[in-house]
Amino acid sequence: SVEEDVKTTMISFLEKLSSSNGQQGVSVQTWNKGSDPCKDQWQGVVCDSRNLSVTRLFLDRFGFFGTLDVTMLCNSQPLAASLSILSISGNNLSGGVAPEISKCKQLTRLIVSGNKLSGNLPTSLAMLGNLKRLDLSSNEFSGEFPDLSSISGLNVLYAQNNHFNGSIPLFDFSNLYRFNVSFNNFSGRIPDVQGYFSQDSFLGNPELCGKPLTRNCSSQSIKDDNSEVSNPPKGASKDQILMYSGYAALGLVIILIVVYKLCTRKKGSTEGVNKVAASGDHGSGSIEKTSISNASSGNKSGTSRSELNSMASESGLVSQSLIVLTQPAEVNELRLEDLLRAPAELLGRGKYGSLYKVMLDSGKTVVVKRIKDLATSSLDFKRKMETLGRRKHPFVLSPLAFYSSRQEKLLVYEFQENGSLFKLLHGESRKGFDWSSRLAIASTISEGLAFMHQELRDEGIAHGNLKSSNILLSHTMEARISEYGVMAAAMDDQQSSSSFAASPHDPRNNALFKADVYGFGVILLELLTGKLVKSDGVDLTEWVKSVVREEWTGEVFDRCLIAEYASEERMVNLLQVAIKCVHRSPEARPSMNQVALMISTIKEEEEKSLIYEV
Ligand SMILES: Nc1ncnc2c1ncn2[C@@H]1O[C@H](COP(=O)(O)OP(=O)(O)OP(=O)(O)O)[C@@H](O)[C@H]1O
């Protein structure tokens, strides 16, 4: 059982939390001297597997109105040595956080949001080297924010809705995946967040300036910003070169289009003017066409030969207008030539085409997927995209606009600043990607896919290319399914010329949906194991199946998940879902609807456990 000293400390800590000025407060029935915090399951207490030490305290929304005596808590050596989570949000606690917090060295999460805590934060916070998540939001904290840049594993920092002042200290922004300091009194220039966070993270600080806010710092800094454009700084040369080559390449497309237009005008071709009927449209997905007749070739220098050559050889480029599918003001008026003229950065070259990040005049950043030699006819592609444009789900990125000619297809999507799930899982910040975030992402993807499958079954449009690099993370780190239906269009077209009208009962049609279920299963396996789909020639699915057959199930899980004491029971449950999804026989795989339901049950259990489970 737990040491007496720990028990006494916890009870005194609770007394401080629950009462103020002699006023007797909330009592927590289970916390009493005659029992054991672990064996007798004190409310809000989670222990290690042998029930010997207290590892987590979940005291959120208990109605406490006293003070947070971290000095008492962290001065208890055995407790400080085992406590990894202190979560005490949504109470009415006042007073400050004492410097002794630094003695609770094992803390990975410190969550004190939604209280009335005040005063300066102790600089000793920086000594909590294991901290991953720090949530101070919605309190009355003031003064300067301590420098926490030495905590290299910090993933989440919430400090919004306080009264912090002074400048925002430096953080390792590439490791942070959530960051919010909005609605404080911070001032001065925002440190370089390397594009990881949007202005939402900084709003409500009247004296804060610089990117990503639209407020410039001073005339000097405006000059700095401009010189960046004309004079690439030394450090960024590779990215800049990519950007300029993309820029030049897209510029050339405009020239080609203009030349082609001029050549064909005499023939009276009306190919570019075919009106798109928004049939069956119920207002939300209204389709608008813009003209390219005034295409300007005002491009800039800085060219990449190979890109130029490859584009120049495509003389069959047929000019048609960009078809805008969505409403955001910045995109509504978007014209093809604006898109092609805007500075572009090459993000990658996939199997089917290239991807560019494009900064529009309006300041909005979009990505343009350029697909070459897709066997689909221009008309089929158009129909498919319009159909997709009308089926919107918040977890699925729907194309903002597209362009389609026989040889060239362009798709415009919103830029997702936090990269892909692939990058998160296999990149540097992998360690901080904890179990509850992984489960939340699995659940989000399953819901988005289940919706799309249901909506598009009759049209026979599945995702077609589901993998972790096509799962993107929004600025709030929520998963978004990207490129839905794009490659399905490519593949099914190779099998039939008029696949669009495929019957819902067509077995081939069903196979497309079951292929998505398989792809989703592989994503689940990546989330659970943290391993690459293929490494050293070993296939992840085969490896997991063989380990599970040998009944070494525990061996498959990502070590980071084991290290954070994630519930093995729920990991096993999710693994079972994954294994069903990757069943060799497509018919034996569950539908996405069934999958989503199974995952939501696991997620509910997880949520309950965070509060009650011991
Ligand atoms: N809207 C977006 N916002 C931000 N990054 C994106 C966006 N779309 C794609 N990416 C990222 O850009 C990179 C290149 O994407 P691209 O689609 O060209 O390649 P891919 O997904 O690896 O292969 P495929 O061509 O089979 O889809 C990927 O890492 C992807 O995650």
Automatic annotation (TrEMBL):
Biased composition (Polar residues): 287-310
Keyword Nucleotide-binding: yes
Keywords: ATP-binding, Glycoprotein, Kinase, Leucine-rich repeat, Membrane, Nucleotide-binding, Receptor, Repeat, Signal, Transferase, Transmembrane, Transmembrane helix
Gene3D superfamilies reported for this sequence: Phosphorylase Kinase, domain 1 (3.30.200.20), Ribonuclease Inhibitor (3.80.10.10), Transferase(Phosphotransferase) domain 1 (1.10.510.10)
Entry annotated with the keyword Transmembrane: yes
Positions bound to ATP: K369
Chain segments annotated as transmembrane: 241-260
Region feature Disordered, mapped onto this chain: 273-310
Family annotation (PANTHER family): (WILD MALAYSIAN BANANA) HYPOTHETICAL PROTEIN, LEUCINE-RICH REPEAT RECEPTOR-LIKE PROTEIN KINASE PXC1
Name under which the protein is recorded: Putative inactive receptor kinase
Record organism: Senna tora
